[in-house]
Specification:
The chain has a single domain, classed as MFS general substrate transporter like domains (Growth Hormone, Chain: A, Up-down Bundle), CATH 1.20.1250.20. 76% of the residues lie in helices and 1% in strands. The protein has a two-stranded antiparallel sheet with strand order 1-2. Helix 11 runs antiparallel to helix 12.
């Protein structure tokens, strides 16, 4: 390994983990916190919940597009210029949301913000997995990187609520746009591309989520295509559920009499509880494999939804975010791990980008669908029943995935 990439006593990959953690931290603001803006926007403008949700849908469409482009670029060039572009585009667009006077302006700026935000996920996760190929702490490194989203939710949900209460929703958009840009620029200064001569042996105990032995130069087999489509379907259903719950949790909670402050805290706690889920995901996979880990996570999400159907107290709201948050957290590294384990590292960023982008494109409809159901029925109940059904079905599908053989133990070299 190049001397510049390894300082005495520290493997530079851990610095890269920290940088990528910072990048994913800002996703906690963009993905988890639109619901905090929901009612202030609804109070300011004569928009229905479906129309208000459509602005976030535009963000998700832009994000899906850039996931693929960013993942492909991340497989070929250094992550640094990609993150710099991300900081400028996303930070500026979110700040410009402070100037909107129509729903189409909000849709446009959030779409642009989404175009900038995609690489924060696909580039960050694939970069860390390359740095830790064959490392005995590969699962831990991936888990730490993905916890950034949860930590971001803890920080940004109450922070945005404070900004809105103190300065109004327009200034809140401006402030979080600036904060987002600064954080991602800091991440770009620290991140480096994995050294080309870094060896990539199989993981020591099956903990490395990306087995280089499975990187293939030839055309994909029918079984590989089927496996990719199945994993993508699981990811898609999980993202659809997440986007529906994420945007409408706060409006639903306040509808049943829970205060804005408690509801905003719950949104942050959902991200907070995802952190231990992400961290234990690697340890669970060591014991039962990525396939079963993914299946258990999806089932956990399904089992949490009934709490929303009977929600009438703050403690029930917090019980929901505990179960859902932990299950969601376990799922995120598992879906990346099973892709890397099955298909290897050579095009991992692109595969993460494609599968997540498909999920985001379908998930982009979730806020609108839930808003439409509410507008038509005056309740979210039908939507919650639908979420329970598709999540439970997807959990069964995850259990039916063919397991991957574990590679023979081999000492890590870092």
């Amino acid at each position: 390994m190049d001397a510049e990439n390894k300082k005495p006593g520290i493997f530079y990959g851990w610095v890269v983990v920290f940088a990528c953690f910072l990048a994913t931290l800002t996703l906690g603001e963009t993905f988890w916190c639109f619901g905090v803006f929901f009612k202030p926007l609804e109070a300011e403008f004569p928009w229905s919940r479906a129309v208000t949700s459509s602005a976030y849908t535009c963000f998700l469409i832009g994000h899906a597009i850039s996931l693929i482009v960013g993942g492909r670029l991340g497989d070929r060039i250094s992550p640094r210029p990609i993150l710099v572009a991300t900081a400028v585009i996303s930070g500026t667009a979110i700040a410009l949301c402070s100037q909107v006077d129509s729903v189409n302006e909000l849709r446009l700026f959030l779409f642009i913000a989404g175009l900038g935000a995609g690489p924060m996920w696909s580039v960050s996760t694939s970069t860390v997995m390359r740095w830790f190929s064959g490392h005995k702490r590969a699962s831990v490194a991936l888990a730490l990187t993905t916890t950034g989203v949860g930590v971001g939710a803890i920080i940004f949900a109450p922070l945005i609520n404070h900004f809105i209460d103190t300065y109004g929703w327009r200034d809140a958009f401006l402030y979080v746009g600036i904060i987002m840009g600064v954080i991602v620029l800091a991440a770009a200064l620290l991140v480096r591309r994995a050294p080309q001569d870094c060896p990539a042996p199989p993981p020591p105990t099956g903990t490395d989520p990306a087995s280089p032995a499975r990187a293939r130069s030839g055309p994909p087999t029918r079984a590989m295509i089927a496996a990719f489509l199945t994993v993508t379907l699981i990811i898609t259903v999980a993202i659809f559920s997440f986007q529906a719950v994420n945007v409408h949790l706060m409006p639903h909670a306040t509808d049943v009499g829970i205060s804005d402050t408690s509801a905003a805290i719950a949104v942050g706690l959902m991200g907070a509880f995802s952190i231990p889920g992400r961290l234990i995901s690697g340890f669970i996979s060591d014991a039962v494999g990525w396939r079963r880990t993914l299946a258990m996570a999806v089932f956990g999400m399904a089992l949490s939804i009934p709490w929303l159907l009977f929600l009438n107290a703050v403690w029930m709201l917090y019980a929901f975010v505990l179960i859902y948050g932990v299950s969601h957290g376990v799922r995120v590294p598992a879906q990346i791990g099973i892709l890397g384990q099955t298909f290897g590292l050579s095009s991992l960023g692109q595969l993460v980008g494609i599968s997540t982008a498909i999920g985001q494109l379908v998930g982009a409809t979730a806020p609108y669908v839930m808003g439409f159901i509410y507008d038509q029925t005056g309740s979210y109940s039908t939507g919650f029943y639908i979420l329970m059904g598709i999540l439970a079905s997807t959990g069964i599908l995850a259990f039916m995935l063919k397991g991957q053989p574990r590679p023979a133990p081999k000492p890590a070299d870092h």
